[in-house]
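Thread: sanity check for a docking pose with fe (ii) ion

Original post by kr_44:
Hi all, I'm comparing my docking run against an independent structure prediction. Below are the sequence and the ligand SMILES. Could someone generate the full complex and paste the structure tokens? I mainly care about where the ligand ends up relative to the chain.
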Amino acid sequence: MDFASTSEPPFEKAYRTLFVDKQDESIKPHLFNQVLDDGDVDDDDKKCELPLIDISQLNDYNKERCLECKREIVRASKEWGFFQVVNHGISREVLVKTREEQVKLFRQPFESKTKEISRSRLDVKKMMSGSITNSISSSTDGSCSSNNKVEMKKSIFGDDIYRWGAPTATSLDHFSWSEAFHIPLSSYGAASHPQFKDLRFTMEEFAMKVSSLAERIVEILAESLGHGPEFFKENCLPNTCYLRLNRYPPCPLPSQVFGLMPHTDSDFLTVLYQDHVGGLQLVKNGSWITIKPNPDVLVINIGDLFQAWSNDVYKSIEHRVIANRQVERYSAAYFYCPSYDTVIRSCVEPPIYRDFNFKEYREQVQEDVRAVGYKVGLLRFLQ
Ligand SMILES: O=C(O)CCC(=O)C(=O)O
Ligand SMILES: [Fe+2]
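Reply from moderator J.T.:
Ran it for you. Here is the predicted complex with fe (ii) ion included:
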């Protein structure tokens, strides 16, 4: 049997009602025109504008060069909420190995990635009462949920680890043509199985390297607001962070459906490694800008928690992934998160947002995704 018939999530079958009558792409205005009321997709010239920062300069014996590098990071976090880093200290070998293991993981048969559980009345009752909320929870970005509404699934890789599609989507523009392993670094789920030994080692190495990069950047951003790194060191521990391995299968309707719908990340900071295919876009001045793939860079973006903590000094920017008709795409994201009980309080007066803890934030995101199909985010927490 070929890869497609065994490993691909059955998007069109499971979400039949969303896809019905959508086969002829000419019958509907293209999705990108529908959602881009306030801007346009970028032209090629704009692709290179996203700041590219050589962070090896942070170790430069020349103090001025090191300070200038910090200033670039701060400026990009305020003006773009996104930047790319080069000479980041994570070897090509680690990145290549990460990708290889990621590919192997997604090549598991779909049935191994998910495992049907019976929709007994008990399960439905539990689901309704919220006691198995994991089964319908959304990811850290609120854009992609764990289990399919149509066929309740429970992953053999661990609860709530494998996600595909968008269970709460009521229209195609709330849908994501992608699958993901959302791996809390406290447990490697699938990776603890002997079959996935290499995966575990590789992910641990990737996470360890990327987390020290995230810590360094967060420290620089906190310092610029007159704070030390203590708050982050105390609350964002390796076991409170997440890895998310994304795969975007070739999509027959790339102009009708996103690879990943527009969202902001719900963490402090995200570090992303994308492959050569491209499709990641962010909003800048009302336009969508494409982040050109580059094997030497990692993409960094500010998440909602940092925007709240910095009182809107640093920006959590909406981003999305465009689906591709011909080729599959992979990315690996590291989400720098605090423990659930960490209270997020603005470090600048007067605060724009009320105090909230991370658990409250995630629950609100999940509730909104369920109720309205998308994440409302920080607007829910205005003073
Ligand atoms: O795949 C990408 O390039 C972006 C992934 C992303 O935004 C996410 O996982 O939150
Ligand atoms: Fe994201």
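Residues 33-42, 116-138, 142-153 have pLDDT under 50 and may be disordered. Hope that helps with the comparison, let us know if your pose agrees.
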